[in-house]
Input
Amino acid sequence: MGNCQSGLTPEDREAMAVTKQIDVQLKQDNEVSKQVVKLLLLGAGDTGKSTILKQMKLIHGIGFSNDERKAFKSAIMINIITSAKTLVKAMCQLKIPFGFDPGQIHDPQSQADNAHKGSCAEGLGRELGGDNTLGVSAMSIMAATLERNPVALAARNLYRKTEDENGKDTKQPACAKVIEACDVTFCFSDDITMPSDVYAAILEFWQDPGVKYCYSRSNEFQLLDACAYYLDNVERIARPDYFPTDQDILSARILTTRVTEINFQVQDIPFKVFDLGGQRSERKKWVPYFDDVKAILFLVAISSYNQVCFEDNCTNRMVESMTLFGSICNHAAFRRTAMVVFMNKIDLFRSKLETCPVSLYFPNFTGLCTYENASDFFSRQFVLLNKFPDKKIYVHYTWATDTNQITKVLSTRQSGPVWAVVKQEEKLKK
Ligand SMILES: Nc1nc2c(ncn2[C@@H]2O[C@H](COP(=O)(O)OP(=O)(O)OP(=O)(O)O)[C@@H](O)[C@H]2O)c(=O)[nH]1
Ligand SMILES: [Mg+2]
Output
């Protein structure tokens, strides 16, 4: 060896010194990258993963560039038009007449009795026959609503009086027709301003009591959660000089199809966060990201207990989340990974509980349907899925579009992913 070394030219010696230096650097980089917390945002589609990533960008000073805000402007316009069009269609599918005001139905039971009740479940299937925009379970949710809700039956009875032979409301106002005919290409133009007739139509449409009632039954069809926020703010958003605020951006629904990565530091701990698409077709892209994961932030939309999946219009969204969590939590690659569950959309959950009892969808929930009981019930269902006895699941109740609440959960050392990672590291050292 020594002989070999002595036979080296000065260039060889220099090359060896450089190689050694690179090795040292690589080793150091490796040490640093071991300390970086790689965190994956996982969960089913529409549960709020990208919203949490947006909050992380806001909270850790990354924010949004002007180009990003412009891209969100386009997405927000599409969200508004899509929401309005969905509601126009749902008025027809659920058979709710325009102008219908549930508060004006004095004796809903007798109104309902006048409707031929027998037609509910099977009749509904017949009426919807051939319309595959509604799946079997979406239909059964509709049928169940009609069975137990005399107001829904009364609306349907009134609608029948305004129907033509094609089953369409003959009293459909002009604003609904403008929305139906609206072409979304303006959302992709350079100046992206909502046409004035569309704006006026949406404003009038959203004030209709029948439309508001239809919105209250949005678990029976696929509607964006941001619908009410955007339609309430349409006057501001339709102005020619409109530029999206942080809150507008947090409310935007853009289905994730490309992985996004951000880096930031919380109290000396460097984080590298990946946001992955949660819809079924996107989940095949997850596996390549499974190496060296220190923490998983698993998002569940707790408000989705009475909704079906967008992908098949059939599977209950909460059941879908549980199945997915079971496979992630018990995956061999995540044996030692800190696991944090965000039970998200608590704002929507709270208001839903007032009208939609959990036991209708989860008969094994038998307690009083309060926020505390119901949220505790769902958390337990998730924690019980964990098959690793030495692994703790950290559960938080979140409202991802509320920056104050998320700041508290994400930035406090004694909570959120930071806490879970610290505790997991302590356990591994033992
Ligand atoms: N009201 C309310 N809306 C929320 C909350 N969290 C998310 N949203 C909204 O729910 C919609 C879906 O959120 P995303 O963050 O895009 O969902 P995602 O999990 O990234 O969905 P995929 O990309 O399809 O996997 C958006 O319109 C959000 O603004 C919440 O806590 N409350
Ligand atoms: Mg997303």
About this structure: The first helix runs from residue 2 to 6. The pocket of magnesium ion (ligand 2) is lined by residues 49-50, 256, 275, 277 (CB under 6 Å). The two ends are 43 Å apart (CA to CA).
